[in-house]
Amino acid sequence: MKTFSFHRPRRLEEALVLIEKYEGETTAILSGGTDLLVMMKHESLAPRHLVNIKEIPGLREIRREGGGFAIGSAATLSEVAEHQEIRKGYPALVQAIGKIASPQIRNRATIGGNVCLDTKCLFLNRTIDARRSRPDCLKEGGRICNIVLGAKRCFSVFSADSVPALIVLNAKVRIFGSSGTRLVPVEDIYSGDGVKPLKLAKEIVTEILLPPPAPFSLYLKERWRQSLDFPIVGLAMATLPDSTGRKCEDVKMALTGVTGFPPRLEKAESVFKGKAIEALQDKEELSGSIKEALRAAHPISPMGGLGNYRRVQVGVLLEQAASQLFRQIEAGRKKGA
């Protein structure tokens, strides 16, 4: 990898000073480094300054806050998934983390790093020798996309597994910057721009905030291999039954792996709301929501026609997720009756 300067601030304020000091140069924030260091070795990213935040006190802490939890951005994925109360109250998040890479990587990778994961590109995420046959792509400062040939915008894909789960769980992120601390919903930090996917300006994500538990939630993932691979499609879904346990009061769905940001499926959600849960276990009742999901999903279609396969899998995963969740709710109601 190319030469860089390594900085080890002991406070958030020191880290922010470094980011602002080297504003005119490429600066990257290091936490777990499982994705960043690979990109640096491939020279798809070559920061001149690396700011390590993992040793800043408090950023690895998991604590209760407001009926839910505040998870420090430097907490490892394994630490989050193995937390007993998070395992019990937020199954979608635990399932999503369990499908990220391998146990060894999850032991080092951080929740903040996954939330801030850069978009992935079939061309750029290869070694520099493999890229030399084509001109620089948009993410490298070039003028074209090497995946959708001739395209003038970046077609890299957002592929973080934890993010759609956090979205359907109504999680927020706490962000520290020169103007102080701000709190925003997870989905609001993504730009949709493959070149610069995060709407962060000289800021650091310090915590992920989970609201009170949402036990009826899950995450499903389609990928080529059953370990290591980023998602072809990932779907998170959370359902809130009414007080009787017979109707679907609210539902949220979000995707990853299909486009340059993690989209919500709001029109598909509206099909479920207010319906009897028993009826929604029927494929005929599910069909309307699946149709709306397919209309909302506009997967990136790189060379090889992967977009069509992604679109089909959105419907497949939605049917599986809805069936599983509604069966859980129905079983819980009957057990409590």
Percent of sequence in beta strands: 15-25%
Number of domains: 3
Please tell me what the overall shape is.
globular
Instruction: Calculate the mean pLDDT score and round it.
Output: 91
- For the record, the CATH class of the largest domain is Alpha Beta
The CATH topology of the largest domain? Uridine Diphospho-n-acetylenolpyruvylglucosamine Reductase, domain 3
Strands of the largest sheet, in order across it? Answer: 4-5-8-6-7
Could you list the spans in which at least 5 consecutive residues all have pLDDT below 50? none
Give me the strand/helix succession.
EHEHEEEHHHHHHHEEEEEEHHHH
Strand count = 11
Euclidean distance between termini CA atoms: 62 Å
Helix content: 25-40%
- Profile the largest sheet: 5 strands, antiparallel
Q: Total number of helical segments?
A: 13
Structural class: alpha+beta
Rg over CA atoms, rounded to whole Å, is 20 Å
Known CATH architecture of the largest domain: 2-Layer Sandwich
Task: Name its key features.
337 residues, alpha+beta, Uridine Diphospho-n-acetylenolpyruvylglucosamine Reductase, domain 2, Enolase-like, domain 1, five-stranded antiparallel β-sheet, three-stranded parallel β-sheet, 11 strands, 19% strand, globular
Q: Mind explaining what this structure looks like?
A:
- The chain folds into three domains: 1-56, Uridine Diphospho-n-acetylenolpyruvylglucosamine Reductase, domain 2; 57-210, Uridine Diphospho-n-acetylenolpyruvylglucosamine Reductase, domain 3; 220-336, CO dehydrogenase flavoprotein, C-terminal domain (Enolase-like, domain 1, 2-Layer Sandwich).
- Strand 4 and strand 5 (68-72) form a beta hairpin.
- It has helices at residues 12-21, 36-41, 77-81, 84-89, 91-98, 103-106, 111-115, 128-131, 162-168, 266-272, 277-280, 283-296, 306-336; strands at residues 5-7, 27-30, 49-52, 62-65, 68-72, 172-177, 180-185, 204-210, 217-222, 233-241, 248-256.
- The protein is of the alpha+beta class and 337 residues long.
- It has a five-stranded antiparallel sheet with strand order 4-5-8-6-7, with no helix packed on it. Strands 1-3-2 form a three-stranded parallel sheet, covered by helices on one side.
- 33% of the residues lie in helices and 19% in strands.
- The chain has 13 helices and eleven strands.
